[in-house]
Every structure is written in C-alpha cells, then in structure tokens.
Amino acid sequence: MTIQHNIPLQPLNTFGIHAEAANLITINIEDQLAEVGAMPQPKHIIGGGSNILLTTNPGGLVLLNRLKGIEQIQEDDSYIYLRVASGEVWHHLVMHTVQQGLGGIENLALIPGTVGASPMQNIGAYGVEVKDTIQSVTFWHWADAKMHTYTAADCQFGYRESIFKHQLKDQVYITSVVYKLSKHPVLNTSYGAIEQELQTMHVTTPTVATVAQAVINIRSSKLPDPAVTGNAGSFFKNPTIPIAQYETLKAQHPTIPSYPVTPDTVKVPAGWLIEQCGWKGYRRGNCGVHPKQALVLVNYGAALGTDIWQLSTDILRSVQEKFGIELEREVNVW
Fold first, then answer.
1. Which sign does the torsion angle of CA 66, 68, 73, 79 carry?
2. Tell me, what CATH number does 113's domain have?
3. Active-site residue, from 136, 162, 234, 312
C-alpha cells in the first residue's frame, strides 16, 4: 500500500479549494482497510469531494475512495437488488439503473459525489430521498476492525441525516450499499418543475429515463457546473419550524413558501430565506452566492475555505436576525 505525501487536494474537491494532504492513500480494495485501520492517525475520507469545505490542510490520513463495482444480488417479481461499491460515481449509478428501466433514484440524477455519500447524507431531490431505496449499508469499523452491515432502519435516516453523521461519525468507512429498485416504477413528477420540463420536452407518457432527463435539464439550468465554478451544491439545509412560528412569519411575509412535514411543523426553503436577505448573486472577493440559486455558495477562482466559511456565517446571522430561523450547514467542514 502506497502513502503519498504533500498531495494537492484542489482537483479532489468540487469547491476547488487549494489545500494539501500531508498523507494520502487511495483505497482500491476493501482489504486495505485493515492495514489503514491499524494506523493511529485521524482519517478523512474523500469520495467525489462534493460535500466538503476545506478550511485547513487536513492532518492525519486522507483516504481517497476508489472502490468500484455494481452487482445484482437478488431479484423477485417486483424488485432488483444491486450491491454498489461506495467509490462508484453516483450519477453513473443513476444512469445505469435508468438504462435498465429500474425506478427509485431517477429523481436523484446529476447529484455530484459517490455512492458512499448517499446513505451518509440521505441525499434527496425533487420529492425523493435515497433512504426509500436503501436496503442495507456495509462498512468497516475502525475501532473493532470488522465489517458490519446495517439495515435501513439501523441507519437512522432523517432529512440529510443518518447515524453515519452522528454516532458513527469518523468511526467507519462505508464500503458498499444495497439498493432496492423497482421493476414497475411509480414515477414522482409532482415536485418542483419536473412536470413543466416534461411538457417542454413534449413527453406525454413519462418513463424513468425521461424523468431523469428532466431532472438533468433542470439542475443544469440553475446550478453551476463545479468544473467551471467551484461549489458544493446546496450549502444549507431547508429548516423545519413549528406551524405557530410559520404563521407568525406569514403574517409579516405573506409570500413565504412552506411544505408540510408533520401536523405541527413545516419546512421553509432556505434559498428563499437567503434571497430575502439580499444575498442572491452577492459577491465578496473570490467567493459569493450563485445568482440563480441562493442555496449555492461559489468559489470564483481563488477563494480560501475560510472565506467561504465566513460568508456562510454572515448569511446564517442575517437569516436569524430577519426571520428568527437558525439555518444549518449541509456541507462537511474540515
């Protein structure tokens, strides 16, 4: 196993932040994990690098996840089960399932990152969360030097949440995920602009392929390409607030949108809150807020991770002051 030293991380994070790994190991096979686990240094895992903000040069070991493989392990009348290695590119998996006519993750097309991040973040978009297709997650636990497999229930999934972001944070290395995909898809086209985009595409009978393409079109039209403008997608979570608080805000801001969560709570779009505070399109030196989507913070070329962190802090403060709502960052900060 090779340990590389003083490796630039700019090509390995979608924000394009200049940082350097003192020690980097590329993980190509699961057998490497036992040897890595015996090393005492702190461990940081990079897959697609699409959900991290580097504010310093990470110490310890940086592990570059390159585990590969997509394998059908089970089939019944209604579903096909795929075991997918955690280093597979997420969008490639989506297109693989779409080509087979399998339903479940087509609304999650073009989300950057690798498969290993999907259960960690419980990624979601356009009315779909990946938790609804995950059958199990297998991971290596650093402390006991063993593989474990958790069911979806074990993973404690929530909105952009899982056990891997809390109790098991920094304690495990996700190696593979099993997805349960439908042979008879029930399409979800009611969220966002999917139906409108399908009409623009002149699609009258949607399929998983046309829904995926509609999502790709929508995301491409309003989200910056990390290859052109550094970003990590949505930087903030949409907050959930009590109905009573929402009604008070609605009296003051009649156009405030919401989505029901429980009988007592609603979700408010963070992008709307940020835009109302005047941040959409704002630029500060080499970083800023994307002009088409206020949820997305961007690196215009030479921003430091600390610059973006400070901008996000100022945004959090202004939303708190104007609406009394505390936003939460979605990205992982190193």
1. positive
2. 3.30.465.10
3. 234
